[in-house]
């Protein structure tokens, strides 16, 4: 494996079918663990579900530790292929016109490969004054389930000073992302014959009243200068079994994206007060926002590294999606957190998913330089 490249490794990772559900990340994780253990990493496992482990690989410091660990994070599961036929084999990692095709090329096995390649390079450093840790999770695509379970085991996670999340950003460094609060609003009524609606209580009417409340909902916070303002979307609704009955149950699916200055718990409390006791709020996904001040010394250093490697000073920005960092950042001592990876943001979850192969080597170089600076 001495001549292994980032592209070679990405192709090997693509060959593992880790579509979630069911995930089955174990074989892929064992392949990674063997690589890292051979290089000197200490391997720990958290078996979240059968055949769905979280992998924690730690490269020990060689000297007295000058600072906390640097952690590289990624997930091994991918989303389903979709219902449209692919033009390329989704598990072959074929390269055409500078693009590698396959499920997970962008989201996010190219990023995982970048983490591993950096880890292998850092293992060759003779002096390390900080630990290097790689955390590869299962079940991220279904609501960060793997790391949520892992966070209940602080002895496995430990703490760190810096966290690099290799999600797809086209190698642009992001200092955070919005939070996600997905809820199902449950409205209960009383059924009756459709010709005598006065005998019942229509749950759809109650749901419509809630939607009116949501339409006018004021978060009460100013837009953040980098992350922007929070948002609310009614994404789906289900109610009624047949047209000639009064529906006694209606559900409204709500997708809220939260920002700096307001927690998901505060938003839930606001909505609960407005909707009243007759509406049951069932949580689906609850991920708080992630943000590190761009003036943080480590973040300044990270942006300088990206500029050195790419030749361009990157703009400060945040991601639109949420990541495992929503769980890992608070669980690991609130480290400075950077989201950066070679995958294409626009290609995540797409048919004929690909990433630009030219971004692989710069990603590995950025990750490696960040690690070297941290362990010096």
TrEMBL record:
Transmembrane intervals: none
Family annotation (SUPFAM superfamilies): Bacterial exopeptidase dimerisation domain, Zn-dependent exopeptidases
GO MF assignments: hydrolase activity; metal ion binding
InterPro entries per UniProt: ArgE/DapE_CS, Bact_exopeptidase_dim_dom, Peptidase_M20, Peptidase_M20_dimer, Peptidase_M20A
Gene3D superfamilies: 3.30.70.360, Zn peptidases
Key words of the record: Hydrolase, Metal-binding, Zinc
Cofactor names: Zn(2+)
Pfam family of the protein (one): M20_dimer
Domain (Peptidase M20 dimerisation) ranges: 175-276
Protein name, UniProt field: M20 family metallopeptidase
Organism of origin: Roseovarius gahaiensis
Classification lineage: Bacteria, Pseudomonadati, Pseudomonadota, Alphaproteobacteria, Rhodobacterales
């Amino acid at each position: 494996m001495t001549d292994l490249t980032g592209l070679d490794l990405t192709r090997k990772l693509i060959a593992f079918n880790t579509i979630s559900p069911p995930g089955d990340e174990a074989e892929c994780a064992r392949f990674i663990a063997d690589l890292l253990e051979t290089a000197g990493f200490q391997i720990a496992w958290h078996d979240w579900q059968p055949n769905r482990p979280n992998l924690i690989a730690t490269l020990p410091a060689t000297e007295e530790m000058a600072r906390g660990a640097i952690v590289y994070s990624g997930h091994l599961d991918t989303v389903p292929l979709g219902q449209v036929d692919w033009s390329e084999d989704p598990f072959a990692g074929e390269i055409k016109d500078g693009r590698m095709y396959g499920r997970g090329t962008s989201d996010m096995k190219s990023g995982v490969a970048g983490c591993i390649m950096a880890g292998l390079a850092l293992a060759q450093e003779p002096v390390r004054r900080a630990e290097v840790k790689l955390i590869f999770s299962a079940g991220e695509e279904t609501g960060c389930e793997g790391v949520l379970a892992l966070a209940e085991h602080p002895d496995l996670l430990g703490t760190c000073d810096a966290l690099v999340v290799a999600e797809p950003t086209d190698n642009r460094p992001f200092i955070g992302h919005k939070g996600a609060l997905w809820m199902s609003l449950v409205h209960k009524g009383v059924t009756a014959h459709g010709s005598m609606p006065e005998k019942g209580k229509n749950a759809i009417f109650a749901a419509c009243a809630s939607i009116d409340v949501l339409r006018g909902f004021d978060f009460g916070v100013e837009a953040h200068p980098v992350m922007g303002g929070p948002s609310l979307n009614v994404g789906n609704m289900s109610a009624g079994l047949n047209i000639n009955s009064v529906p006694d149950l209606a559900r409204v699916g709500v997708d809220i994206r939260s920002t700096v200055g307001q927690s998901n718990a505060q938003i839930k409390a606001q909505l609960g007060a407005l909707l009243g006791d007759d509406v049951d709020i069932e949580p689906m996904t609850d991920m708080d926002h992630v943000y590190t001040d761009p003036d943080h010394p480590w973040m300044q250093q990270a942006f300088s590294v990206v500029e050195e490697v790419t030749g361009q000073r990157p703009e400060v920005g945040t991601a639109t999606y949420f990541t495992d960092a929503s769980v890992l950042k608070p669980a690991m001592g609130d480290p400075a957190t950077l989201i950066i990876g070679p995958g294409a943001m626009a290609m995540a979850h797409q048919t004929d998913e690909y990433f630009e192969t030219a971004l692989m080597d710069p990603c590995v170089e950025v990750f490696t330089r960040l690690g070297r600076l941290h362990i010096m």
